[in-house]
């Protein structure tokens, strides 16, 4: 066991930080802070991500993937602006969901554009009545001869309003227990009609969350991916890897709040001395640093476990829950340490709190993550 990055990892992490500081943050700063980035801006961002070689990090190398380990991918992701990292997570995970089981000719037509980020792709699974119970989808896939039609609606879909293609989970019928049989379908927005409505987010306001309506949307039969019933399996494979990565994104935000609060208490004088010299303030700083450090190590450990090929559902769920919980607590304390400044817009801490808070929902809410972890501990699933 060793806790230092090796020289390759240090260079990778530093390069990702430079990409973020010198290129991506200035793009975000140039755009309105309170509304979703345009597709044009997202294409510019994906151009930079492609140059860095991370637009399809999880794609196997034989299909043109980067060959990064999950641990190394985590070291990159934790340096990116979280709103960009979340978009990339959706794109990269959706590319994996596409690649596993796509018809060869369809794969040949799309994979290179997904791999390079020239075409942005997302995953549409959640529905008004299928959130945590993600398999209970009712969006239907109907086959009529050599034509296929999708009818239904999806909610809270990352990237939907700026993507070129979607991997949509559809029900092809019911199994013997009356549960939907989910299957993946590629929908190319340049060829098929869908309705899109952006949903305003409380945090990560430059990001994209969308409602998607399919009203007998026609898709080629060749765009049906994999076999009936296997959509859930590929959702889970990608979620297991996403969770610690999302944890690292939340901790990136928490670290910024911690740095802001530390600077403030070092400078702010009360009762004739800097706040930082007071015992209770130092205890808060110690708690914050411990919360960030311990959760970050748990996320990195979960990613290393994924790299080892061992089962990682429990640790991956634990890592995201711990990291997003700790991130929100750290920002809350940072706001308090900054007093009045902490609750005004001046330091931006309230926005950081809202940004980090968003991460407690996608790819498993806190409650569901606890139950996934609990299932690994006890061998019993408690959600049904
Ligand atoms: C920023 C963001 C990005 C997203 N991106 C995508 C995307 O790209 N694609 C996509 O398909 N979806 C996406 N989603 C949707 C996301 O997956 C769902 O919001 C999530 O699964 C929770 O579903 P829900 O909102 O319906 O909450 P619900 O399932 O209604 O849960 C509400 C609360 O009840 C609790 N709960 C539920 N069941 C149980 C139980 N059995 N026991 C105890 N507590 C329980 C939950 O923990 C939660 O706190 C995104 C959501 C957000 C916020």
Distance between the termini: 38 Å
Number of helices: 11
Biggest sheet: strands, sense, closure? Answer: 4 strands, mixed
The neighbouring-strand order within the major sheet is 1-4-5-8
Overall helicity: 40-55%
* CATH level 3 topology of the largest domain: Butyryl-CoA Dehydrogenase, subunit A, domain 3
CATH superfamily of the largest domain, by name, is: Butyryl-CoA Dehydrogenase, subunit A, domain 3
CATH class of the largest domain: Mainly Alpha
Radius of gyration: 21 Å
SSE order, as H and E? Answer: HHHHHEEEEEEEEHEEHHHHH
Strand content: 15-25%
Low-confidence stretches: none
Second-tier CATH architecture of the largest domain? Up-down Bundle
Summary keywords:
single chain; 384 residues; alpha+beta; Butyryl-Coa Dehydrogenase, subunit A, domain 1; Butyryl-CoA Dehydrogenase, subunit A, domain 2; Butyryl-CoA Dehydrogenase, subunit A, domain 3; four-stranded mixed beta sheet; four-stranded antiparallel beta sheet; 11 helices; globular; binds flavin-adenine dinucleotide
């Amino acid at each position: 066991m060793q806790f230092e990055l090796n020289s390759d990892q240090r260079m990778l992490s530093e390069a990702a930080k430079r990409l973020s500081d010198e290129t991506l943050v200035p793009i975000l700063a140039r755009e309105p802070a309170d509304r979703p980035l345009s597709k044009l801006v997202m294409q510019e961002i994906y151009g930079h991500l492609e140059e860095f070689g991370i637009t399809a990090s999880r794609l196997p190398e034989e299909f043109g993937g980067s060959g990064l380990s999950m641990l190394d991918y985590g070291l990159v992701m934790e340096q990116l602006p979280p709103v960009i990292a979340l978009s990339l997570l959706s794109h990269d995970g959706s590319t994996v969901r596409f690649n596993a089981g796509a018809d060869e000719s369809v794969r040949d037509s799309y994979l290179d554009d997904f791999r390079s980020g020239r075409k942005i792709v997302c995953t549409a699974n959640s529905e008004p009545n299928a959130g945590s119970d993600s398999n209970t989808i009712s969006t239907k896939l109907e086959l009529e001869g050599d034509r296929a039609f999708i009818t239904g609606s999806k909610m809270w879909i990352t990237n939907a309003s700026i993507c070129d293609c979607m991997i949509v989970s559809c029900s092809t019928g019911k199994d013997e227990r009356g549960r939907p049989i989910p299957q993946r379908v590629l929908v190319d927005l340049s060829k098929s009609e869908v309705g899109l409505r952006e949903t305003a987010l409380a945090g990560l306001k430059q990001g994209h969350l969308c409602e998607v309506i399919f009203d007998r949307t026609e898709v080629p039969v060749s765009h049906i991916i994999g076999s009936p019933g296997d959509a859930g399996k590929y959702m889970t494979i990608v979620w297991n890897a996403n969770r610690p990565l999302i944890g690292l994104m939340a901790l990136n935000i928490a670290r910024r709040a911690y740095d802001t609060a530390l600077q403030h208490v070092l400078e702010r004088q009360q009762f004739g001395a800097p706040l930082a010299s007071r015992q209770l303030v130092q205890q808060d700083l110690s708690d914050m640093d411990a919360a960030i450090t311990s959760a970050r190590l748990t996320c990195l450990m979960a990613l290393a476990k994924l790299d080892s090929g061992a089962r990682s559902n429990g640790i991956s769920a634990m890592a995201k829950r711990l990291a997003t919980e700790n991130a929100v607590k750290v920002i809350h304390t940072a706001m308090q340490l900054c007093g009045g400044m902490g609750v005004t817009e001046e330091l931006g801490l309230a926005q950081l709190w809202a940004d980090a808070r968003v991460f407690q929902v996608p790819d498993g809410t806190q409650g569901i993550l606890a139950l996934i972890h609990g299932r690994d501990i006890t061998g019993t699933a408690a959600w049904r």
